[in-house]
């Protein structure tokens, strides 16, 4: 029968409590439509605050566990649905992360993933706010399902991996998470257009964003699921960002099995784990990897 997963494509308002309430409503609706795993867009509790560098915006952060995880866990247990939620985490005084929490269908927290790749671009000043997830070259006591900052979780319904937004441009992240056993790679996202660039570059940017992730699905023989936010969010002194939506779910052939436009939408699709095995038997990319030859990738640059 397969697994029904849901992506919540939503517009975000100023009030974090309002955003949390709407997210809960949409996940509840997805569960009533048969979804067993639901994923929210990146940093869904607030407007995208990284458009400027402002110490006051650190007040938006919350601990994990905290208010959001408590409310989401209650719903997860009530509806027997696993939930992936991206939050602005306050880990300690002065230490903040862009963090995804994974809740199983009984409401238990299975753990967190802290965004590894942190961008710094005009209106995407994330390095100011987020400490990257911890990576290392030596053994740091990882448990099964973890490797050097990347993680997977065995939910009641499937083994899932979670990466966050800027992570989606890096094939290494998708590969490692796949090798840990992920059947679905979730990418909670907040990506949009600079309005002045939209006419010239808008269509190409959307297609590039979708194409790189579909390539991860093909190269790794997994499902990829990416929920984005929508709507224009102002920033004083700038033209702001227009988040473009286009959330989608792709199968191991890279085919769209469900996709959204630029309005609020709950994207639901059935993922068939048997297709992963079938595709990998016929396209055995993981079998034919030359793991003995890839050492140079650990260098910053080769010339």
The Rg value, from CA coordinates, equals 18 Å
Total count of helical runs of at least 4 residues: 5
- Mean pLDDT comes to 97
Low-confidence stretches: none
Termini gap: 50 Å
The count of DSSP E runs of length 2 or more, i.e. the number of strands, is: 18
Percent of residues in helices: 10-25%
Order of helices and strands: EHEHEEEEEEEEHEEHEEEEEEH
Q: Looking across the biggest beta sheet, what order are the strands in?
A: 8-9-10-11-13-16-17
What fraction of the residues are assigned to beta strands by DSSP?
A: 25-35%
Structural class: alpha+beta
Secondary structure blueprint with pairings:
Elements: E1 3-9, H1 16-32, E2 37-39, H2 67-79, E3 82-92, E4 95-103, E5 109-114, E6 120-121, E7 124-125, E8 146-147, E9 150-154, E10 159-162, H3 171-179, E11 184-186, E12 192-193, H4 195-220, E13 223-226, E14 230-233, E15 241-244, E16 248-250, E17 256-259, E18 265-271, H5 273-282
Parallel strand pairs: 1-2, 2-3, 10-11, 11-13
Antiparallel strand pairs: 1-18, 3-4, 4-5, 6-7, 8-9, 9-10, 12-15, 13-16, 14-15, 16-17
Helix pairs in contact: 1-2, 3-4
